[in-house]
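Example record for the data management plan.
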Amino acid sequence: MIVYPAIDILDGRVVRMSRGDFATVEEVAKSPLEAAKRLVADGAEWLHVVDLDGARTGRPANLDHIRAISNRFTVKLQAGGGIRDFDTAEAFAEAGVSRIVVGTAAIRDRELIDRLVDRHADGMAVAVDARNGMVAASGWTETTNVKAADLAHDLAIQGVPTIIYTNVSVDGTLQGVDLASTEAVARAFGGDVIYSGGIGSVDDVKALAKLRHRGLRGVIVGRAIYLGRFTLAQAIAAAGAA
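Corresponding structural encoding:
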């Protein structure tokens, strides 16, 4: 299971927040490049980068930072935030992103998902963000009437290779993972799943690694690493130990 340390960018700053609430934003690194340097030095194979400005407004604002990380390091980038049309997806790919992540568009523009599956194959993923089991959209500022498991099932039928499942209710809280909902979504999808939300200890990472049989292939960690709850090296070891 791959550990994806997160770099969330807002107004050019690296931040973390709780439960998708922009009012809780706190800066955790001086710059995206500085954060990437530290994480790569600690053993990151991939970085999970989110343009929070883009996620909220639908217009990416931090592609220069993503491009700078790609140009500086050989680490692979998984990134999204505001990808709601084909040209924006291409802009992320051209910035050096190995796997583009689409969110809101998965609900509102199924034709776009089809085009991206055809164009990028394994180089794309869809974010399935859920609050109380229902899909959250527009940078988590809206809760839809679509069930996360239903969306995951539909995406599998469309040929999406990977989904990133986030339980918004626990994201950034360090209070632990929701294994039941994760397993339900993974079962509905039947493909590769990356989990995000609530990771507070290496035991959480180990617990997720035990869901490999359900297709869990990765975990995104953020606030816990920035706050020193554990190191990236410890998380990587835990991911391989279960």
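Summary line stored alongside the record: The chain has a mean pLDDT of 91.
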